[in-house]
Design brief:
single chain, alpha/beta, Spore Coat Polysaccharide Biosynthesis Protein SpsA, Chain A, 2 domains, five-stranded mixed β-barrel, two-stranded antiparallel sheet, 23% strand, GalU_uridylyltTrfase_bac/arc, NTP_transferase_dom, Nucleotide-diphossugar_trans, EC 2.7.7.9
Length: 317
Amino acid sequence: MRRTVRKAVIPAAGLGTRFLPATKAQPKEMLPVVDKPIIQYVVEEAVAAGIDDILIVTGRGKRAIEDHFDRAIELEWHLERGNKDEMLEWVRYIADLADIHFVRQKEPLGLGHAVLQARRHVGDEPFAVLLGDEIFVGDEPALAELIDRFHETGSSVVAVREVPREQVRRYGVVDGEPVGDRLFRVRDMVEKPEPDEAPSNLAIVGRYIIEPEVFDLLERVGRGKNDEIQLTDALRLLARRRAVYACPVRARRYDVGEKLGFLQATVEFALMRPELAPAFRDYLIRLVGDLQAGRWPAAVDQAAARQASPAPLKREG
């Protein structure tokens, strides 16, 4: 009997230090790309791939994520009373997206440790992992493509993409043998190698379909890179026991856990929105013209520049 993927795990317990001070009191997963928080895009991808049982692994200070996917009775009443039907529909849609559960990672011990917190919920069946700070956009959800590959191979499969060699130290990297159209069998993988030590430039990006055997391996693997329990290390052990595959997914990826990727996603998602695109496109064209002519940012005064800076302002006197 063919095994199906019915459950997804979204690790969202990180401290979000790259986005300080914005993430001092709010989860980075709740930062909006246009008007929708990052994690909602991730949940919607899982739902579009046919999964409606989702476990979000959170940590201290992440209550806003739970509140976002909960009912908001007061807000619904206010919108209904004001005849704001479209907004009301959106608010109810979020609460009804999926059957969403939460568990806390009580110590920040790495991605592998976060996934291990899902063991009781997942049980003895294959499951999806979607990182909470990466958004994929395409005609076919990235996760749906991985699920299809899992059904073809009957084995764990990770999403990969080629990255410049100097960037491999930011990723888990795969040594893979081509075995078909856009599919590699994993021979080895290593977490965040130095460029001259990386087996390839095939980087693991934030989507996985994993067999439950990985939980035993996560318990045994011990701490690795950065003194954390790494999911890559457990998958490496799994690949020595049975086939693990890597698939370069077609969907476009946005690394919204980095400031540049977040800004790129914000601009491009705004341009995908029919109600925003015409005026925003005109603004960008004017801005690019000013940049090319050297009129910007020279026109911004020093006070505005200081206000835009993330550096703390110094008190006078």
